Amino acid sequence: SKLQKGFHEGLQNNKEIVDLRNRVEAFASQFAMPGFDTL
């Protein structure tokens, strides 16, 4: 939907959100996840 598209664009343009996502991904990558071994 149009609202969801705008929401996602806003997230990508928000430095704090991008930084948080990167930190979460870095943290999560320390743990094995079944079926997620393609990284």
TrEMBL record:
The keyword Transferase applies. This is Serine hydroxymethyltransferase. GO terms for molecular function: methyltransferase activity. It comes from Citrus limon. GO terms for biological process: methylation. Keywords: Methyltransferase, Transferase.
